[in-house]
What does this fold into?
Amino acid sequence: MLDMEEQVYIAGRSRYGGKSLREIARESGRNFRTVKKYVECEDWNEGKKPRKKRAEGLEPLKETIKEWLKEDQKRNRKYRRTGVKIYNDIVNDKELNKLLVVGKQTVLNYVSQCKKEIYKKNNKTAMYGLHAISEAQVDFGAVLIKTASGVEETWHELVLSFPWSNAGFVQVCRHETKECLCEALQRIFEYIGGVPLRILFDNMSSAVVHIEGNGERKLTEMFMRFTMHHGYRAEFCNPDSPQEKGNVENKVGYLRRNYLLPPPKVESQKDLDELNQKLLEDCKKDLMREHYIKQE
It folds into this structure.
């Protein structure tokens, strides 16, 4: 059986490159029947796997990580530490290593989250440009949710926006995991009754494992399966370039201010389901607003 990346490559050569089965077989060096299997594949799901227990215990290291990132903010982007470099620096420091009781991915996720918060204020202007009707953009944002204990916790909103029409749809998630990303997009697709042909993402850890030296993305297997199952083309911004998806960046703030303040109360899964359904309906009603450019 081919690994997931090769499956996606073969299917993509047909779906996006317009290549015939024989051309793909010749280019890839794979058997014609193997190529046919993945080009014609309609079910990109896999059997359920038990979820790993989420690691806890990063609290003693959070301030150190934030200080490092704030130091890096003063430097040119190419001289800033990556999440992997920060993790390795912690491991190699005798004192910090004693406080490290979580896995590498937990550190990478936290670094990614901090970078969004620390680097989001920059002097670049959002790039609106021209967008096709079928194009969309995706991003996560932070929201406050009041839990059963009455405490306000930071959760996340997943926003899918359409720059051409300025439509936007939001779903609240507990975390920014790959499962939350796919589940939230699935609910939005089902509600709007379709799937965009092209979706622009940033380099969120729920979709991108890491960026290779040549700029190619190593994607999570779940995200690749989800993308191939729904048939849209996933594209990614350049690192630290939120202005490339300015529409969804603005939409994240707009939907939070207008539909998620004051913080909604979520005491159970039923409450969360009802909140997300209401958000979809509110987003549909919001389409009656005048377009910010077209004035109609």
Summary: The longest strand covers residues 135-146. Residues 60 and 99 are 7 Å apart (CA to CA). The chain has a mean pLDDT of 84. The two ends are 53 Å apart (CA to CA).
